[in-house]
Structure formats: C-alpha cells, structure tokens
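pinging the channel bc i need a second pair of eyes. not urgent but kinda urgent?? the chain im working w is below, pasted from the shared doc
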Amino acid sequence: MSFNVADKHVVVVGAGRSGRAAAELLVARGARVTLADAGAAPIEQESQLRAIGVAIERGPHRQELLGAADLVVLSPGVPPLQAPIASARARGVPVIGEIELASRWLAGRIVAVTGTKGKSTTTTLTARLLEAGGFQVTAGGNLGTALSEQVALSQPDAIHVVEVSSFQLEGTETFHPWIAVLVNLSPDHLDRHASFDEYAAAKARIFRNQDEQDWAVVNADDPGAMRLAGSARGRRLDFTLEGGPANAITVEADHIVHRRDGATTPLVPLTAVRLPGRHLLADVLAAVAVGTIAGVHPGDMARAIAAFNGLEHALEHVTALHDVRFVNDSKATNVLAAKRAIESFDRDVVVILGGRDKGAVFEDLRAPLRERAAGVVTIGEAGPVIERALDGIVPLHHANSMAEAVRRAFVMAPPGGVVLLAPACASFDMFEDYAARGRAFKESVSALVTEIGAEER
C-alpha cells in the first residue's frame, strides 16, 4: 500500500506517549506536523519535539486547525466524536488513529491482541514464546512501546505483537493482523462508548481486514467473544478451559494440549505455568495458540512459559504480614477483571475497590464477594456507588487514601487471608494511571510492614 505524507500538514491530537511517537514518525516521513493537546501542562519531551520541527498547540482544539489539515491522527485517549474532529471529518479530512498510521508502514506481520481483561499478559507472553521460537519480535501498542516507535525497526521477517484497545481499534481502517486474538469480551469503557454494542463493534474491527490466509484466536469459553468472532474470515484456532470446540488449545490431565481431528498433542506441562488464577491460565492458552500457529516448538514454549512470572500490577504478590498476603492487581480496571481476581482466591479476601467509574455494573461482584470475601474497602469517586451496589453482602468501609485503605483492609483480614487491590475502576481520580496506583499500594504495604515491625521491636 502506498501511503505518503511528504510535505503534507498532519495534526496529531493528544500528546501522550502514542501521540508523541506518531509526531516523530510523521516528521521522519517528511510531514509538517502540529501536535495539539487540550491540556495546559508542559508536554513530555517538548523541547525535543520542537527541535525536530513539531509545532505544538495547547488548549481547546480549534476547528480551523483540524479542518485545514491534510490528515488528522488521534491518540487513543482522544474521543473521536469531539466537535472539532467531527467537523474536520465532515470537511473531508481523513481522521485515523495512531495504530492505523503506524501499521501502514510496518514491513513485518502483526499479531494483535484485544479483549476486556488479559491483553497485557497475553501480549507479553506471546512475544516471549515467539522469541523463544527464533522470530524477530517487537511488542507494544497499548502496552509499553507505541507502534509508531516500532516502524523504524520493522523488517519483512519481523513479527509485531500489538496490544490494541477499543480506543485504538475504533481509529483503524486498513489495520490487518496476521493473527487476531480476542481473549474475552464484557462491558467496559462505557464512559467513552455510548453502549456495549458500540464497544463490541470497536473490538470487532480487529477481524475486519483479515482474509482466509489469516488466523483468529478466540476464547471459546466466552459467549460474547465467540459471537463477535462469528464473522471473522480467517482460519480459527480457539482456546478453552471448558472443553469447547474439536479444534482447540485446551487442558487435559497435566498438560496444555492441541486437540484436533480426534487426536491430542501434548504441548506444555502445567507445571511450567507460574501464574496464579484460572483466568491467567486462559491467557497462557491464548499465547500457546499463537505459538502453535507460528510453528514454535513445544519445548521452546514450555521454557518461555516457565521463565514468565507475570506482569507487575497483575495479581502480583507483594508480601505477607502476620499470615496475611498482599496482592496487587491494579490492572483490574473493570468489573470482569476484578471478578476474576477475586475468584483466584478461595476465601477471606478483603478487596480494595474504587476509582473513577467507567459505567460499570458493580452488582456483578456481589456473588464472588459473598462466596469469598471478608470485606471491602472502597476508595475514590466510585466509592459511594460501589457501596450501594454491595450493601448487605460484606462489611464495607471507605478510605480517603491508599495508605488508609491498606491499613483498614489489613485489620479486616483474618489470619490466612488476602488483601487484594482489584479496583474495578480507572485510576484517574487519584492517580496518573493504574501503575501509579499499584505503586502506591505497594508503598503503603511496605510502610505498614515497617511500622508494625518497629512496634514489635
């Protein structure tokens, strides 16, 4: 595909990591670039961007600027229906997302991973399995390195493993994964998307440009994911913990296996899997499905899985104090993720919930909390909403800070119990992002351990 921006005026909207990377890529390809950001705060790396010729405009987005552009590129956090953006589109200005922009210049194949929960774990482990198989691999997208940063390194034999969110997918037109992975689907980001159907439609764009030579890897245990993938034109290799289709990556006895045509091929012993929780095992199956399609030897996959201890902020064991474990799952930014985190423990869990509500149905947590929880501590803007949704299910307390939440949760947890940060919400009311929230949790736990240790001395 020929795509040329030389001497074109391109406006990049949003100066986050993806927007800055897109601006640098566009300059390298000969475009005249304006980086527009609605915030008033200084932009990270602003001096470097100006030095390479990027014009920077802060404040409300101007229709005059966007409407006169040859191309508008949106960062993932920028809602595409803002009036100036919609006006530019109505004037005939092409409007695309950063993922779409970068993908037009990639030389290698794309493995794209989306879903409501588990994208980052699946993306990271998939990249490691492919590396173990001898492929040249880059990983990023919504996770870590922006796809625009990978273009310069792209070679025809490279595989780009890309985590893609609904925000990124809604800005795609020609984005074409060789393998598209849908790990699950449930309501999320309903503060941004008008409905669950709109959210699902954005996710479905991962399959939009695939053909019969491509592959779709889908969670066969998730009815919503299966419905969404029903129109996918690629070949299928699904994964399942429940039995599922005749051709699938699944678990039998003590192995992850490939079941097809009535035969079963052992691939990876379950003893190699270091990740806690049934939902993380499903992420492993998804990665193994991609590795199987790519032809990675089972022994190489087993070694890569055995060396993978999970991601920071994803069911991360922090420490134990007086026979109470502390677990950080700050990446649990929606109800499905929080539910699966809670279900990873049998009993006596005290859950820290709250943050910025994304239109979640917190009542969906009532059943797992009733079965497993010793209490809930709420934080942030969504605290009152969560407390109403869970009233009468478990003891509830509200905390005004992460330090207070950790202390209250520790007091509520019985010996042998778990204090679990699984917020089911976005972090932006109190923290810069989920990682900052997770670090605050760990710092608060460390301070509590130090304090109690000093008292005991």
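so The chain has 17 helices and 21 strands. and The radius of gyration is 23 Å. — does that match what u expected or am i reading it wrong
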